[in-house]
Prior knowledge:
Elements: H1 3-29, H2 33-53, H3 62-74, H4 83-99, H5 107-132, H6 142-148, H7 191-200
Helix pairs in contact: 1-2, 1-5, 2-3, 2-4, 2-5, 3-4
Amino acid sequence: MIYRNKRLNAADELDRARRVMRMADLALAEGIFEEAVSSAYYAAHHSARALLFSLGLEVRSHDALRSLLGEHFVRDGRLPRDTAGKLKELFKGRLEADYGTHVHFTREQAESSVAWSRAFITAASDILAPLLSPSSARDRGPRYRAAAAPSLSKGARKATTPYRRLPTTNTRRPPTANNRRKPTAKSQQPIQQRTAKSQQR
């Protein structure tokens, strides 16, 4: 995954995490605690994906996401040691909220999930800030590179390579009076004489 794709994918996932976080806040304000818990997990989930995308890693399972997050961000101290455990708790809460029968969450449980997810998004944003900062982007396409290119001073000329005509590769000589095939004595005989001789044979 090239640098530009890492940056775009990480930015997209982080933006999605923030949008889902707003859904969690709305559900919490409306007293829909199961939806608040579920949305809180997905907000954290997309934040974790953004972190892994910044390294060029894309995961397909929730277990792999927690494992890689611990390996690349918890081990070096950029995230707290309990990050993977908290994500696992949120994941279990999301399963109960989405698929559980007769499962109800209290306001305190929903508020706790939403608060932790919001703090996790903030931590992920801080880690990704150097990558997503416009001033530090190294590959933003030809439009941005052209805008950032220094303009030539007045009177300065851009160096160009002069056009040089390449020699042709065709070495075949055109027919001339000197190199034409010389006629033989037989070819100089009239056609009628040659025909008559062939009939006599």
